[in-house]
Write a structure and sequence with these properties.
40% of the residues lie in helices and 25% in strands. The chain is α/β, with parallel strands linked by helices. It starts with 5 loop residues before the first helix and ends with a helix.
Length: 367
């Protein structure tokens, strides 16, 4: 049996500025460091190893949930250094673990590269703000920054509903209550219903994962609260379509009307490795719900929103591909990496060629 200890592996992940630790049978421990996978040892983990490592951090309740439903998620603090979001699961009958590092330090807008227009959006008195992107794209980090900005600058009551709680916030100018699904409340939808009776100004819904939660979030925004939600979609068009399509056909027209009236912004993001392999940088698509975009949502013409974003720079809007191209032009990222993240790869390539950017990358590669 390999002599792997959880503490030493987590310290290694922190020291290497990694984001995730993967523990699975028949493979050595693997860390994701600056977006790439690295082995944290040579000896493959055995079934006894992963079972022992899981038990060293999982509560009895989490272990029981693993046995009953094949998986469990929870958060835990590692010394004074960081928190981890943990997913334990069964695969091929054995225990596997993935631990996501949640840094204790909440980054500023400038450190994240979040556009200034977002400060205006998140200080609105009411509405729905959606932060979207695939798993591991930094949504939680961006939301923590936004909530911290509100917490620091406004006297609000903030309620977060998370599964599990990742960043821990302290009361500043605002008061902030963090509720964990499965610990403090059974479901997102139930927590949302309760939150409306708790005098909130701002509500964060960690994941809009089902129809009931989506409906409750839109209602909360409609009744005079600022609501943040996340979806695993990329881009404003896909996000709006995903929400509308979650409802039965006979309710979709009503939902489009509600969304048009209450959606304030869709912020989509992705992470790209920095050139040189040290760290990652975020790229954002920003949609602001102008009257023109509200009409497109109401009239079921979401396919035209991309053009509205493209011509809406004066409102602080930009497409993801535009930001990716800008990062590449500044020499921050490699061409192959931004092309892999582009929403419209062919159009992205033609734009890069038109600017002479693709050729410069290839020449640099040759040299």
């Amino acid at each position: 049996m390999a002599n792997y200890e959880m503490v030493s592996m987590l310290r290694m992940l922190v020291d290497r500025e990694g984001s995730d630790l993967h523990l699975t049978v028949d493979n050595p421990p693997v860390g994701r460091v600056h977006g790439h996978l690295q082995y944290f040892g040579d000896n493959p983990l055995t079934a006894e190893d992963t079972e022992r490592l899981m038990k060293s951090i999982a509560s009895v309740d989490n272990q029981q949930e693993l046995q009953e439903v094949g998986g469990s998620d929870f958060g835990f603090a590692f010394e004074d250094v960081a928190r981890f979001r943990v997913s334990i699961f069964k695969q091929k009958g054995y225990v596997g673990l993935v631990l996501r590092l949640i840094p204790r330090k909440i980054l500023s807008f400038e450190e994240l590269g979040l556009p200034k227009i977002i400060k205006e959006v998140i200080t609105l008195p009411r509405g729905l703000v959606l932060v979207t992107g695939p798993t591991g794209s930094g949504k939680t980090t961006s939301l923590a920054t936004m909530l911290d900005y509100i917490n620091t600058n406004l006297d609000h009551h903030i309620i977060t509903i998370e599964d599990p709680i990742e960043y821990y916030h302290t009361h500043k100018k605002s008061i902030i209550m963090q509720r964990e699904v499965g610990v403090d409340v059974p479901t997102f939808a139930e927590a949302l219903r309760r939150a409306l009776r708790q005098d909130p100004d701002v509500i964060l819904v960690g994941e809009m994962r089902d129809l009931e939660t989506i409906e409750a979030a839109i209602t909360a925004a409609e009744t005079g609260h600022l609501v943040f939600g996340t979806l695993h979609t990329t881009g404003a068009v896909r996000t709006i379509d995903r929400i509308v399509d979650a409802f039965p056909t006979n309710q979709q027209e009503q939902i489009r009307t509600q969304l048009a009236g209450n959606l304030k912004s869709v912020i989509s993001q992705t992470l790209i490795p920095r050139k040189g392999g040290f760290g990652r940088v975020a790229a954002f698509e920003i949609m602001i719900a102008t009257p023109a975009i509200q009409n497109l949502i109401r009239e079921n013409k979401s396919y035209r929103i991309t053009s509205a974003i493209q011509t809406g720079h004066k409102f602080g809007m930009n497409l993801l591909d535009e930001h990716l191209l800008a990062l590449y032009r500044k020499g921050i990222v490699n061409y192959e990496d931004v092309l892999a993240k582009a929403q419209q790869p062919e159009e992205f390539e033609s734009n890069a060629k038109a600017m002479g950017l693709e050729d410069s990358q290839q020449k640099a590669n040759v040299s």
